[in-house]
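Input chain follows. Return structure tokens only.
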Amino acid sequence: MRVSALLLAAFTASFIPLVHSTQASGHASNYSTWMALSIMYREQGVLASSTDVSALLQAGFTQKAFTRLMKQYPHANSTQAIAQYIARSVDSVVGPVGNALQDITYPMDRLSSGNGLIDQYVKTQNDADLTSLMALRESINLNTRNANGGMWYYVYKNFSYLDGMYSLAPFYTSYTTHFDAYNRSAIADMMLQLDLLWTHCTAPNDTGLLVHGYDASKTAVWADPVSGASPHVWGRSLGWYTMALIDTLELLPREVYPKEWALLLTRFSRLASAVSKAVDAYSGAWWQLLDQPGRSGNYIESSGSAMFVYSLFKGVRLGYLDNRRSGFTDVAARAYEYIVDTFVVNNGNGTLGYNGTVSVCSLNSTATYEYYVGQPINYNSVLGSAAFILASLEYESARSL
């Protein structure tokens, strides 16, 4: 505790100048860097102990957001501190994910640190990093699957979630291209996971949206008798899936996998259009349940909204979306500005807070409307604040053009 207190005191002493540098006139990073430094101040996104496996998703998501931040602003005053924090976060997961048999007792969220481990291993060639990378990769092979080959998200029999794709698809793709380049079956399996969810989770009424997940056995109390689909379009789960598509498009070698890349692009484009149409007319952001707009108890949710902002801006920036026809950047910009006005909080101590992020929504439940809108709202959840960093980076990039 004494060491931790000393480290926090040292960080606090250097934190205020870094925050001031992000707020300086003309400094590009603005909210993205400021929120990252605030996460660091709160010491989030790092496993507190080797048994703190519930935080694997938070750690991996933090690593991805911070890595993207460093790439966009490599010469910022905060870059060294952020790089050190990424390394600390990655190091905190090395032990907990270093055994494939243990890894499969965790949700698919365990894979979220895979890209951070790849980046670190490429730089350091550290054997411990490689061991954990290989264990995570092997855990994909060992993951329990349904009769069609779809991976269970966790221990819930035959349940597959959109949520798991953000952790799975970019890691599966990056690992294959870095270490197993001739393994086309790995890319085929990655595509299968995305495809099964796309096929089974199509929302009704031709909205183009996807529901939270499906039960391949069709025996869950909420399962559609034909498709096995759950009944509602949960914003954050759809956000995870949408980000999985755009990030995998960026990583998958187009010249090596032209058919797979084209299918990903088609589906991302369709989903981006559907998400843009599902935006709330008043706020410009997205509901906790996108299929129940305006219903009593439903609300605008901050993590899913930030994920959609990131995905739309990034799709335009990379040339995957036709902004001239559909105005994706206008949709994303309006949503981002609402998020800043509504959910970003100046804590008064130099840090930013982030509000309006729903806790956890599981299909190991009744999956009713009342269940989804009744889950707690968290303040300073990394699932929201890291998504906000990614959204901010894309907003800042678009505004710098």
